[in-house]
Amino acid sequence: MTDKPKDTPEPSRVDGATPSTAEQSAVSSTGRGVSSPFDSPTEQFPQVDPSNRPTLTKDVPRTDDELGLDPEVPTPGESAKAPASYGYASIPPAAKPPNDTGRLRRRTSENRRGTLDLGLFLLRLVVGGTFLYHGLQKLAGWFHGPGLDGTRDMMERGGWDHPTVSTILVTAGEVGGGALLVLGLATPLAAGAVLAVILDAWAWKQGMAPGFQYKAGPGSVELESILAGISAVIILTGPGRWSFDRNRGWATRPSAGSFVVLLLAIAAAAGTYWYLHGGNPLIGIR
User: Fold this and answer.
1) 134, 227 contact by CB (below 8 A)
2) Burial of 220 by CB count in 10 Å (0-12 exposed, 13-18 middle, 19+ buried)?
3) What sign does the CA torsion over 177, 178, 180, 181 have?
4) Which of 61, 200, 255, 265 could form an S-S bond across to 192 if both were Cys, CB 3.0 to 4.6 Å?
5) Best CA proximity match to 224, nearest among 166, 10, 216
6) Running DSSP on this structure, what letter comes out for residue 221?
7) Do 158 and 281 form a contact (C-beta atoms < 8 A)?
8) Residue 2 has what DSSP assignment?
9) SS (HEC) of 56-104
10) Rounded to whole angstroms, how far apart are CA atoms 78 and 46?
11) Which residues does 190 contact at the CB level (< 8 Å), separation at least 6?
């Protein structure tokens, strides 16, 4: 009989059963007892009673939605009502390229104005400078002009009922309108002002003698007709890009508003002539 080490624990018993051959061999080979039947690689797992298995009330979750891993993204209406804890950034869609190539070509050709702006600039210089020249003659007596007093006397002899008011209107229209035309500033209003002034001058000279006085010479309305026509053209075409109005719509693409300004200038000229002078200029009225 062999001696057993005193510090070796007794082999474990399962339900008071006698140690198996494997347990006994393990004790003899290792010198210590087996604490569990599962420590021995040759031991079989005990069978589980099917009646003791837990019953599952629902299927095992398999997807992110079932596990609750997918966050709920609020709709635009819900996000507006929810407290602003954090926001969602949205990237706008890329702009679609224009399909209408004909329209794109027209838009590109509009930027190629060639010498158009230069021509409108020279036209404004000539017309605006002419009105500014005559206005300074009346205002300051420059360039051998009559001055304000001489202009008032001339208006009174010409049959104007209120010569002082007439002098103020014609001087302000020629000086202010001419200077603004040269600068290309508030161009529709400036061209409308000089157009109203020159139309009244045309009616005044035309009424000095019976018949149409367009022929060249004293009393003719040829110059007034040309200046009136050019003033109307500037209203309808705009001052161009060589002007202070270059960022305005009427500078390069005047529309219905410019036509309205043209009609208002003609109406202002007719009303002023009727109130301050009166008569039909085509039958010769002094």
Assistant:
1) no
2) middle
3) positive
4) 265
5) 216
6) -
7) no
8) P
9) CCCCCCCCHHHHCCCCCCCCHHHHHHCCCCCCCCCCCCCCCCCCCHHHH
10) 57
11) 128, 176, 177, 178, 180, 181
Give me the phi and psi of 167, to 5 degrees please.
Answer: -65, -45
Dmax over Cα atoms in the chain, in whole Å?
165
Amino acid at 91: I
| CA pair distance 179, 129, nearest whole angstrom | 7
| In contact, 192 and 180? CB cutoff 8 Å | no
Tokens of 5: 């080490």
pLDDT averaged over consecutive 10-residue blocks of the chain (286 residues)? 48 50 52 55 62 62 63 58 54 62 56 88 97 96 95 94 95 97 96 97 88 77 95 95 91 90 97 93 77
Contacts of 83 (CB under 8 A, 6+ apart): none
Query: In 3-state terms, what secondary structure has residue 260?
Result: helix
Encoded tokens for 82 = 């929810």
Residue showing tokens 């926001």: 87
Q: Is the pTM of this model over 0.85?
A: no
Classify burial at 123, counting beta carbons within 10 Å of its beta carbon; exposed 0-12, middle 13-18, buried 19 or more.
Answer: middle
pLDDT of residue 9: 47
pLDDT value at position 220?
87
- pLDDT for position 85: 52
